[in-house]
UniProtKB/TrEMBL annotation, chain A:
CDD domains: KU70, vWA_ku. GO terms for biological process: DNA recombination; double-strand break repair via nonhomologous end joining; telomere maintenance. The lineage of its organism: Eukaryota, Fungi, Fungi incertae sedis, Chytridiomycota, Chytridiomycota incertae sedis. Belongs to the ku70 family. The keyword Thylakoid does not apply. Pfam families: Ku (PF02735), Ku_C (PF03730), Ku_N (PF03731). This is ATP-dependent DNA helicase II subunit 1.
TrEMBL record, chain B:
SMART domains: Ku78. One of its GO terms (molecular function) is damaged DNA binding. It is found in: Chromosome, Telomere; Nucleus. Residues 312-446 form the Ku domain. Its main location: nucleus. Signal peptide: none annotated. This is ATP-dependent DNA helicase II subunit 2. Keywords: ATP-binding, Chromosome, DNA damage, DNA recombination, DNA repair, DNA-binding, Helicase, Hydrolase, Nucleotide-binding, Nucleus, Telomere. Belongs to the ku80 family. It comes from Spizellomyces punctatus (strain DAOM BR117).
Amino acid sequence: MSSYSNWNTFEEEEEEEEEEQDASIEVDIAERDNVIFAVDATLPMHETDENGISHFSGALRCAARFLQNKIVQSESDLMGLVFFGTNESHNEQGFKHIYVQYDLDVPDVDRILDLEKLANNRDKVSTEIGSSDDYSLAEVFWTCSNLFSAGGQKVSTKRIFLITHNDSPHTGNLTLQRNARVRAQDLQDLGISIELFPVEIGNNSFKFDVFFQDLPGVVGAGEDSAEVPASASRKYEEMQKKILRRETKKRTTFRVPLHLHEGLTIGVKGYNLVLEQRKGNYTYLDRRTNAEVRTVTTWACSATAQSLLPTDMKSYWVYGGQKVVFTKSEVNGIKYFGDPGLVLLGFKDRHALKFKYNVKHAAFIYPDESEYTGSTSVFAHFLERLSIRGKIAICRLIARRNAAPRLVALLPQKGCVDKNGDEIPCGFHVIYLPFEDDNRRIPASTASQISPEHTDLAKEVVHSLVIKNYDAANYENPVLQKHYNNLQAIALRRDFAEEIDDTTLPRTEAMHKRAGDRIRDFKQALGEQEEDEVVVEQPKTKRVKAVDGGQKRSKSDVDLSESAFRAKCKDGKLSSFTVAQLSEFLLSKDRKPAKKKSDLIRQIEEYFEA
Amino acid sequence: MASKEATVLIVDVNPSMRRKKEEGGKTNHQRAHEALFQILHSKIIPGRKTDQVALLLVGTEESDNILAEGEQYQHIKAYCFEEDEAALFKQPNLELLKYVERGTEEGTAIGDVMDAIILGLHMLEQHCRKLKYEKKIYVFTDAENPVDTEGSDAVAEKVKELAVTFNLIGYDFDDPDHGIKHEHKSDVKAINEEFLRGFTERAEGNLFSGDEASELLERLRSKSVKPVTVFRGPLTLGDPESHPAESLEIPVWVYNKTAEMKLPSAKKWSALAEAISEGERNGATYGEVEMQRSYKPALGDADLQKDQNGQDKSISKDDLVRAYRYGKTLVPFSSEDEEAMKLRTSKGMSILGFVKQSEVPRHHLMANVLAVVPEPGNSRAAQTFYTLIAALDEKQNAALVRYVRVNDANPKLGVLVPARKGWGWWAQIPFAEDLRPYSFAPLDHLLAEDTSASNSTLAVSTLSPSNNTQSHTDSPASSSKKKHKLDARQVPADEAMRRMDAFIDAMDLTDAVEDEDGHKREAFRPKDVFNPGWQRIYQCIAYRAIHPDKAELPPVNPQIMACIEPIPDVVERAKSAAEKLKDAFKITRVEKQKGSGKRAWAARSANRIDAEEVLNRPDNGPAEKRIKVEEPMPENLTDLTARNVEKVSTVDPISDFNAMVGRRDIDLVTKAVEQMCEVIVKLVTESFGDQLYDKATNCLVVLRKVSAENDESDQFNNWLRGLKHLLSVGESVRHAPFWRRVVDQQISLITKDEAGDSNVTREEADAFLRAEDEPPAAISKGDEDEVEEEDLLDMMD
């Protein structure tokens, strides 16, 4: 592990291993979302809005944007596009004035590019497809349901996004209107919902109650008529709000017995309700051909140069300067602390679970009937009593075969819907407790008196900057958002990646507006008292140390600029920096510093050579 | 970077240490060496070069130390490191450990422990000079031999002056703290013990009895990690650049409060190298394994992957480019581009705002906890920081803080909560992407006294007196209370709750154990439990290192296991409560099916009752709308096709119909036939012209076949008669052409020859198609299931 790149691959290997374990037991068939955009292509739709964009183009852009989100979120979702009120006809049933642009298919780059081209080329659309008012909405529905059934997804939601300006289609033609209703009813029976995107042209408002309110299957229709669909432009806006989130499949991370007492055992399944989402694995391509490349890893014996099979290898640890060798089965024997399972050790009050008792993300358990029938019933009562009495359970967890035992706390969670409308599942959160070995001691810090008056001022500051309706779901990971945008830009051959809205940055302007005065008051109060004694002692740190033959220099005397490093590198005098300084420099260049000083120096030399 | 350490280990090997005790237990010599072994073991594990030791044996025949001269400092032997004989201190190695494990030496002379202490101090002074070292002296002695007490005050002063941590382990010493007093001491020992106790006090050192030391050291301490900052920088509120007066910028230092100590990972060892004869082994390469990576085209013919010489085509690492998946497409994204396009961030901790502590769910803490403290020596920072933390504490608020460790590092989001001493704890919380909104069925209804509610419709329908001659009639009370499928409770709800409470009380850990002073305290506090995996792994490594010839591994130290096992007293105490709880529920272990791995799992899951599935299933809801949470992997293709359709639609009636008929979980054939009949009528009567006639005809063919095969001939025949009539009268006459198709294709009644449940002859069937419509009265032959004209017309609406 001499260079950074090697280090990198090592770590990835480990990560992959972990992922694999996580993925072990079961993978669910995710619910797929199938959406058909049914876009009105009659003449009024080709009128332009105040921005000079036709409503028809707007609909296509929305569809393109929808695809861009889908491609990141869930690659297996399907999308189709149907125009109606066209002059030309293109569909399997031979219906007039209905033009199937895309069958249902998974999102891909070509389709997005094609859609954008379509959206920007009005003439082509209007001449090639044309417009006609002589369509039948019933046939539009019929076409859509045919596309859905051809798509063949069994476990799925099916939605039609109906984008139209016409709040009263087939006015005066009762037969056509009746047919449309019958078809809509059919769709509803099949679990297909219709989401209406009312396009308002000029000052004409879209009257929901004329026709669509009574149409079966339309979202917001029926008895609860209070809910009128937002206008199409509003809905587009919502869709523009990009939240690129890869959907994750529900999978168990472990499935173990929970031993409550001798002879009293139930089954539980473990899940991860929170887990750090990463960029996803990359694949290597051959730069010259863009063909996929697979990595072949082989092992060779350094002494004999023979290649090694897994059975030819043992394991060793270094101890007291010597290599201590064990066979694979011995290693497993060392790691074996019993079969996988949760063993109840006892109960404590909730407050015994301190904030600082945390080492990794929590898991979540839910009963499992597959090993012990009756588990769910016992689990429900166990959960209920612990929850009501404000208790936690302390257990030992061996999550998988040969996994190291951990001490965990089971924190009861009653099912409910939180204030943000999210469903909170019922079960136990499994909090991994630190061992004494995981606990670090913190050096004593500078003491200082605080006065109640100052605290009151600080409370004012805190009070004025309280985030209302805090919800973790409001903060997207800017690194991932940026990564997806970059990928999208490269895939769609754009010059620039879209800027992201980094919700994790403090909104400083708003903060100053809300609390600027109070922060100033707080600062001033502190300042007045301390006017005389703002003496910053030079902290006594080990960085203040002897370098170069006893000549003492403090850290601040050492020039740590890049040019200083460059100069020293040129003179071969990098060793005059401390290991910490060298590491810091490499970190600032985003390189993973090695451990040894000589390696660090070589890394920096490589950096300047490059 | 931890500071340097120098430790002097002084062991009394005088003959008195080897005196056998009556019980035949360990001698003090053995116990002292075991303790010494643990100290060295715990230094060898982290293997720090700057942690060095010297070993002095007191009571050896020879005298080998730097002060030995004439009559001075006799019978003290300093351990001599092989590789560097002149060195006073060295990093402990395996040789030294083995030496200690063997019991070092059995001294035959009489040596003075005080001499050794002075010698140790001298060595520390020489070795450490004025450099910063952590200096320690451990003395293991039984104090049975003469000690020269002259000038001991000066020695004690020297210990303090050099800032040496002095530890004295006295074997068979009295232990007033634990009320242990050893009788029948020799006069020498009594005097020496008194003197050493006083000396240790004057040197501000620690005195342990032999028992105490064993207890302390057997609990193998993991490597102690020196606190190092992971971040030194500003904690900001607001924008100090644009609003210097209206913002806070507090210099803080951040430490890890917790950090999961990972078990040491093993390296690969080549077993093939073991074939090399001992003389030819090269220390540097022997047993080492080299990892070789090569890159090959992932796809294509095996032939294409070979070059002209039949060699595998390998791609040079320089020709590789990373690619990420974007939909189906692999998008090349070189690491240089990735670097150039990545998110730029600047180092710091910035407060976004404040939230209630209760708004951050405990399970949202994603990783280890950091400690945030004001920059040391900066009183202004300290005051501002502590005041802010105090304000948070009083308001029970937490600060939402974005944390960037170094410039351009990935930002993390976390909460800063008040901790003791005015510090803050910071822990990472999830981004939106990290939340996984899995849904789970609620469990509350299993708590109700009567869990039958959700199954009531089912219970009623099974009891409906469709068959009056049904002989067995359950008592009304028990039959009307059919339990929920997952309800395993055997006693009333409140009784079950009471038993659960009793069990919870019996297993309480709050005052479950006693500390040294006899005070009750909480069991399994994190600070009392050491990582058993880590202890075990090093126990095995040390054992194998010292006994390379022994094939077996040492047994697990029971003390290691005890810290993660239920406490026997607590288990015993809860026994009766657990028994009662157990009787309150019917729990059955599912017999494991033979086989292993994924296959066995799939087989099991195919048969299992899945709690979520059962709970999620509405009793009469349409299948399409149900959210299926966990679909077990299908066992075979039949499972795949037998999807849970409950309604024949007009869109794809044939598939739906087949799916319904093919269902194995419930019999839906009759229902399917009925619905198919409706669908055909619908298709025909709503067809624009003959547009849907083909579809309807196809349906009719399938319907007829299935009806004949599944004892539904009667139903089919009656319906077909009705259809014929329908298409010959009233409004539907315009669809009469459909009937002509039926006649053309000779789709007639199902005959006796085709199905046992039919009473229609071949002739009757032929006549049926030939004949013009008969009056409806003639259709029904008193059959209750007849299909009336009204029914057919109703279906159209």
